[in-house]
Amino acid sequence: MSVLVVYGSRYGATRGIAERIGETLRACGHEVDVREASPVLTATAYDAFVIGSAAYRGSWLEGPVDFVMRHVDVLAERPVWLFSSGPLGTSTTDDEGNPLVDVTRPRQFDELEEALLPRDMRVFFGALDPARLDFRDRMARRLPAGRRLLPAGDFRDWGAVDAWARDIGAHIPGPATKGTPS
Ligand SMILES: Cc1cc2nc3c(=O)[nH]c(=O)nc-3n(C[C@H](O)[C@H](O)[C@H](O)COP(=O)(O)O)c2cc1C
Asked: Whose CA is closest to atom 29 on ligand 1?
């Protein structure tokens, strides 16, 4: 099967997750393209999709949201998996004890779920390098005033990413037999 892994990433953490998912799907025997969401990216050539974005202030980035809007008809009739890269730090719960992956669920997930009926939706821990942030994100990292800074570091859980990708690989039908010598 031909799979498109499409992502939105501001500083590369989500691109890393997307590339890792692509490698695992290739190892499962699928043909995989890993592409940044962009207006020129098309969907019709692919049999299945993994779509992901970094979350900023509770929202997916514009690129992957636009990709879904442009190709919703194709996506709605083919298998789709969604992931978000967001929570930072080593704690798996917030101050009230709620799982971070639940409280950091991006606000688009409910509508995406309704429109695409994805096979699965997953939130992964992300990464933040303060030295790379642009002015807007450096300021936003400090807000709301009085709250602690968003933690710096690479908190991506490669074991969780790999396990999820292997599960996807196992649920996408195997490589096409077309062209196999008879
Ligand atoms: C200003 C700012 C706001 C953020 N807001 C959120 C958020 O609302 N929810 C979340 O889960 N992560 C949030 N994060 C963490 C990023 O989503 C995380 O660092 C992500 O892995 C970055 O991916 P990227 O390098 O691909 O852009 C925020 C980070 C910054 C710098």
From this structure: 56
